[in-house]
Amino acid sequence: MTRICIPDDAPAVLAPSPVFPALQARAQLDYYDTLPGTEDLLIERLREAEVALNIRSSSRFTERVFAACPKLRMVSIWGTGTDHVDLAAAARHGVTVANTPGVAARSIAEHTLALLFAVARQIPHMDAATRRGAWERGQSMELYGKTCGVIGYGAVGRHFARLATAIGMRVMQWTLHPSAYPDVEFASLEDLYRASDVISVHLRLSPDTQDFIAAPQFALMKSEAILLNTARGAIVSEPALLDALIAGNLAAAGLDVFTTEPLPPNHPLTTLPNVVLTPHCAGITPEALHAGLQLAVDNIWAKCIRPPGQST
To answer: Residues in domain D-isomer specific 2-hydroxyacid dehydrogenase NAD-binding (predicted)?
Structure first.
C-alpha cells in the first residue's frame, strides 16, 4: 500500500471527515493530529512517506525537507496557497506538488461579503451595544452605489465581484495577469485605490505580492474606505495597516488573515474598534471542507500514484 503521511492535522479537519475512512482503507497512513512545529520534526514524520497530505501551511516544505526525505514523491496540499512549499526544490527532487484551487472560492467570497456587511453596518459593535441596553442607530454605511475595488481576478475575486455587483456596487477590478483575460476591462491600481469605497484583496502570496499594500498604497485611499483581506495576511503590511486605521486614514477593515496565525494575544489589531476579525475561517464551511479534502486525496491518485487495484 502507498505510504501517506498527514503531518499536521491540527486542529483536526481530516480525521473527522468522511474522506478519512476511505483513505485509511486504501493506504498506509502515518497520521499526526499535532503540528510538527520544527523542520526536524517534520522531517522525522515524513522520512518514510511516499506522499505528504499537507493540511496546515505552517508546515514548510524546504530544500532540506525534500533532501532528507528521498522516498517522498508527492505533496498534496489541502488549500490553494503554495507559498510554504519550495517549488523549485520540489522539482529538483522529483516531487509533484498539487493543491486544491477553487473548491472554497464561493465560501471565501461569501465570507468576504459577510465581513463587508459586518464592517459597513458596524454589526459587532451594535450587537454588543444592544445587549448592554443601549439603542445606537444611524452609524451604518449603505453599500448600494458605492465603488468596490477587487484586487485579484482568480476564482475568489471573480465570485466576490459578482456578489458586490448583485448588491448594487460599482466594481473595479485589477489583476497581475491582464493578458489572460483579453475581454475583461481592468483598472489601474492607482485609479482603483483612489476611487474605491471598499477594497478587497484576493491575491496569492508570493515574493511579488508580499507587502503589496503598504504605506504608499494607503496614502492613495479614501479616508472613508474599508479594506477587506481574506487572502493572506502578509499581502498587507500590518504596521502600515495599523498606522492607517489609528490615524484615521482608513475608516475600517475586515480581516480573516494575518501575518502571524493564530493572532497573538493582545495584538494591536484586537484593540481597535474599527476592525472586524475572524480566524482564517473563510473557506472552512462543511461544504468547502469536504470538497477540498476530497480533491486533495483525489489528487494523490490522479497525479502521482494509481489507486489500489489499478494496474501500473
So the answer is: 113-282
Separation CA 31–CA 256 (nearest Å): 28
Is 172 within the bounds of a domain?
Answer: yes
User: 47, 125, 194, 280: which one is catalytic?
Assistant: 280
If pLDDT is split at 50, 70 and 90, which confidence band does 236 have? very high
Same domain, 114 and 80: no
280 in catalytic set: yes
Q: What is the count of structural domains for the chain?
A: 2
Selecting among 39, 44, 110, 261, the annotated active-site residue is 261
Q: Which stretches of the chain are DSSP H helices? A: 19-26, 39-46, 63-68, 87-92, 105-120, 123-131, 155-166, 189-195, 215-220, 238-247, 286-303
Q: Which tens digit of pLDDT belongs to each residue from 106-154? A: 999 999 999 999 999 999 999 999 999 999 998 899 999 999 999 999 9
Q: Catalytic residue at 306?
A: no
Sheet holding 2-6, edge to edge: 27-31, 2-6, 51-54, 74-77, 96-98
Which pLDDT value is given to residue 310? 45
Residue of 106, 158, 202, 232 marked catalytic: 232
User: 3-state DSSP call for residue 163?
Assistant: helix
Residue 116: which CATH number?
Answer: 3.40.50.720
The more confidently predicted of residues 312 and 55 is 55
Residue 312 in domain:
no
- Which residues form the domain of 62? 2-103+286-303
* Catalytic status, residue 56: no
